[in-house]
Design a protein that fits this description.
15% strand; 7 helices; Rossmann fold; five-stranded mixed β-sheet; single chain; alpha/beta; globular
């Protein structure tokens, strides 16, 4: 028995386009992000989607509303992006200049460092996996759309694959990743 999770990363924001950390900030889609979501709606052969869940952040909710116009969108705070703390609102280059030591250590081993005023990767993973478990347990053997963030999808996939390199698993904006999540074998996060 498995739940089919259609994991959808939100469309592009102006911050994504400029490679700025969004994290917990509530940034909406830019014009390109809206076009990406509309394109994905046309490309997505969703068939019967039983339920649609979304992060409650603007960029995810806007994407969900564009793709799933006729569906009720269930907001779930557990699907929010990681809180990047003092890195939010800064580009990669700006973070390197302003916080070179902690940023370099975080890039090398993000599980061992928590950004100032940010969320640890372990806490982020636990929050995301708990949200996905909740969705899967509520919808066994059904197809469910989950509209969220790149980091959410990357950390969830790294959990399933038992890897630590979640950065390599982050999908492009307005893309889908399909996971058959076996409900009976859902394991807890440690």
């Amino acid at each position: 028995m498995a739940t089919r999770l259609i994991l959808i990363r939100h469309g592009q924001t102006s911050w994504n386009a400029r490679k700025i950390y969004c994290g917990a900030r509530d940034i909406g889609l830019n014009a390109n992000g809206k076009k990406q979501a509309a394109r994905l709606r046309r490309q997505l052969n969703a068939g019967k989607i039983y339920e649609v869940y979304s992060s409650d952040k603007k960029r995810a909710m806007q994407t969900a509303r564009i793709i799933f116009k006729k569906n009720k969108i269930n907001r779930l705070a557990g699907l929010r992006e990681m809180r990047f703390g003092v890195f939010e609102g800064l580009s990669h280059a700006q973070v390197l200049r302003k916080y070179p030591g902690i940023y370099s250590r975080w890039l090398k081993d993000p599980f061992s460092i928590t950004m100032p005023k940010g969320e640890s990767l372990r806490d982020f993973r636990k929050r995301v996996v708990m949200a996905m478990k909740k969705i899967a347990k509520a919808h066994p053997e059904q197809k469910v759309a989950v509209v969220c963030h790149g980091g959410v999808i990357g950390i969830f996939l790294s959990h399933l694959l038992k890897r630590r390199n979640f950065w390599k698993l982050i999908p492009k904006p307005a893309s889908c990743t399909v996971v058959n999540y076996p409900v009976k074998n859902i394991r807890d996060v440690t």
